[in-house]
Design brief:
Length: 396
């Protein structure tokens, strides 16, 4: 295996651990049943994790741009595992604030530190296949729930909620640190840090320069809307499927089905965008997402239709994580990609904070997800319309 291929594999494996957050919906109903929490309260740790994850991307991106990916990613893996291990005390403490601090803040910060590193590193190794390389690395994040959703369900049933957090935490800690230790930039970039020439740019933008361009805000709001849509579904897919009549394991498998599609959407959209361009790919997938999300609550009540909806929504959601970092690199260059994409990625945190909580609140008030899906679908269509106007910024 070449050094570049090893880095891609390490980035994939690290993201496979970091993507554990996408299996959160498996914990929602057990937390409600065991502690008497509402769906809104049981969704809060997920949303706080996503918000902290996104906010940490800015300092983590800056750090990896300056000192390289390995040290930053190792620290992220340690915090991710530690957050889960500390979450195991929830059965004794029984206070949702504990999960907000341990799962939400500590594990979320670890996820941000780890996630900031593989994307810029992969792009440096494969500058002429940026969309595909980025998609392969982040595919692990999307695939995570395929493994962890049924594993968490099995651990909860066999050992209880607390021990499920503990055992998962140990796995995350060990595997994340091993994968992070394999990340490195190409040898010719370690000292002088010269970056590959971006085919669409004459020079690289500093973060302050990027923030002065309208394209940044177009990317930011599009990413926020698309994150809100996907994370709303991811955060509630297992309990939603149970409420539609599936048994707990079939419902947990719905999260796994969405996870596979989420994973495939990342290299799939990256490959397509390398051919037809980022904006065209965004328009096509965002429009499809909006239509399907609005229709999802009205799908016929069968296993096949729920899984089909999960596949389409998951694929289109996963596409975001190759499209937006690739577009950021295309528009603003790669020298400061870690921090520049970190700033774009803050939109993900806002979407993650709003989407799952909105869906939980709507369900608690109305007894249905229909209005939440309608709002989310409209936002996805707005994102599609924004993408029509996307053009590379002018460079002085």
């Amino acid at each position: 295996m070449s050094r570049g291929a090893l880095v891609i594999f390490a980035g994939f494996l690290l993201n496979l651990m970091l993507g554990i957050v996408y299996a959160w919906s498996v914990f929602v109903k057990p937390l409600m049943d065991n502690f008497g929490w509402s769906k809104t309260i049981a969704s809060l740790p997920f949303s706080i994790f996503l918000f902290v994850f996104a906010i940490m991307m800015v300092p983590a991106g800056r750090a990896q741009d300056k000192i390289g990916p390995r040290k930053v990613a190792i620290l992220g893996g340690v915090l991710l595992g530690l957050g889960f291990i500390l979450s195991s005390f929830i059965e004794t403490i029984r206070d949702p604030v504990w999960l907000l601090l341990t799962y939400g803040v500590i594990a979320g910060a670890g996820c941000g530190l780890g996630y900031a590193c593989p994307i810029p590193t992969a792009r440096k190794w494969y500058p002429h296949r940026a969309g595909l390389a980025t998609g392969l690395v982040v595919m692990g994040f999307g695939m995570s729930a395929l493994i962890f959703a049924p594993l968490e369900r099995a651990f909860i049933d066999a050992y209880g909620i607390g021990n499920a957090f503990l055992y998962i935490g140990v796995i995350l800690l060990v595997v994340s640190v091993i994968a992070a230790s394999l990340l490195t930039t190409p040898p010719e970039m370690k000292n002088s840090n010269p970056m590959p020439v971006n085919p669409q740019s004459e020079r690289d933008f500093l973060p302050t320069e990027m923030l002065k361009t309208p394209q940044f805000y177009m990317l930011w709001f599009s990413f926020m809307f698309m994150s809100l849509v996907g994370l709303m579904v991811i955060g509630h897919i297992a309990p939603y499927a149970q409420e539609r009549g599936l048994d707990p394991y079939a419902a947990a498998f719905a999260a796994s089905v969405l996870s596979v599609a989420n994973a495939l959407g990342r290299p799939g959209a990256g490959w397509l965008s390398d051919i037809i361009g980022r904006p065209k790919t965004m328009f096509l997938l965002f429009l499809l997402q909006g239509i399907v999300v609005m229709a999802f609550p009205h799908f016929a009540l069968t296993l096949a239709t729920i899984y089909l909806g999960a596949i389409i929504i998951g694929f289109n959601y996963g596409a975001n994580f190759s499209l937006f970092p690739s577009a950021t690199g295309d528009f603003y260059g790669t020298r400061n990609l870690g921090v520049n994409y970190g700033l774009v990625f803050t939109s993900y945190g806002v979407g993650g904070l709003i989407g799952p909580i909105m869906a939980g609140y709507v369900f608690d008030v109305t007894g249905s997800y229909e209005m939440a899906f309608l709002v989310a679908g409209v936002l996805a269509i707005i994102a599609a319309l924004i993408s029509i106007a996307l053009r590379p910024p002018k460079r002085s």
